Fold MerR family transcriptional regulator.
Amino acid sequence: MKKLYYSIGEVSEISGVDAHVLRYWESVFDELSPKKNKAGNRTYKEQDIETILKLKELIQEKKYSTEGAQQVLQQEAESGNSTEDVPVSLKKDLKEMRVFLKRLLEKL
């Protein structure tokens, strides 16, 4: 389900990345800067989730250091090309669908 804004809990569930890790990545990566609402809660957009999924792939799956992940993100931004086989936006949509189906199964 597409939304304009996601809470840190929703992003954590979609991405499989703990909230404290998301807050840490926010302090390290300039590409990840969710806005805060009036209550001070982080509000993530689609692009933020795509960045988080890319970071998760680089850091947790491919075992890049944070510095190495920063370099990859900068190179992709400069060249405008992604090195991925499957677009991050598609991965995000599939993960959202998985969360939705999991919740639906729990209700049955």
Summary: The first helix runs from residue 8 to 15.
